[in-house]
């Protein structure tokens, strides 16, 4: 049966599949099926990171969450009993979408095999990163918790705001279409493109 708690196992199996079948890839983007990805900005970020010193060998970038603690509410799908984990989580990236180097993906597979599986896949990857002594990088272009829908939000007042994003999670079908149209509107002149 496919459940929320199988996501960690899927993550490990993805890393295993990637190691076996994608030997020549330099980067991996992992995203949920309900996210908007501005591929042009993603490619710009990859190009920028590839030119950095060290070739981004330990790159893991996305919407980083730090100092989170396990949820103790039994009604939550993220519920974790104290007996399972009783300390703050290591920094991790929201799983709606993130970018990592292929070299780090292979090292994450090795780290995942040395750790006991944890029921929350995003946190488990954070645990693997911690074992490798790699800190995930926060990037403002990754919005895995969606974007504000308040009337004063840039989403409502500045269409160029969309053009600077890379990943947006939690948009409905109509919002995805609206975002696609805004990002690809050739008549819209914006000052800058991606948030590198």
Automatic annotation (TrEMBL):
The keyword Transmembrane applies. Its main location: Golgi. It comes from the Eukaryota. It is found in: Golgi apparatus membrane. Transmembrane segments: none annotated. InterPro entries: Glyco_trans_31, Nucleotide-diphossugar_trans. GO terms for molecular function: hexosyltransferase activity; UDP-glycosyltransferase activity. It is a single-pass type II membrane protein. This is Hexosyltransferase.
């Amino acid at each position: 049966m496919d459940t929320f708690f199988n996501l960690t196992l899927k993550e490990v199996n993805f890393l295993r599949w990637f190691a076996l079948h994608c030997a020549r890839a330099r980067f991996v983007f992992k995203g949920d099926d309900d996210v908007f990805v501005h591929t042009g900005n993603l490619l710009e970020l990859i190009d920028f990171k590839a030119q950095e010193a060290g070739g981004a060998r330990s790159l893991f970038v996305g919407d980083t969450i730090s100092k989170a603690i396990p949820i103790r509410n039994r009604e939550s799908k993220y519920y974790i009993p104290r007996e399972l984990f009783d300390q703050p989580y290591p920094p991790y990236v929201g799983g709606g979408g993130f970018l990592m180097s292929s070299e780090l993906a292979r090292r994450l597979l090795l780290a995942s095999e040395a750790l006991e599986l944890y029921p929350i896949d995003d946190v488990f990857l954070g645990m693997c990163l911690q074992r490798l002594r790699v800190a995930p990088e926060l990037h403002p272009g990754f919005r895995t918790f969606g974007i504000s829908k308040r009337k004063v939000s840039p989403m409502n007042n500045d269409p160029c705001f969309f053009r600077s994003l890379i990943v947006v999670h939690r948009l409905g079908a109509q919002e995805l279409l609206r975002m696609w149209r805004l990002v690809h509107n050739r008549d819209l002149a914006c000052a800058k493109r991606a948030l590198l």
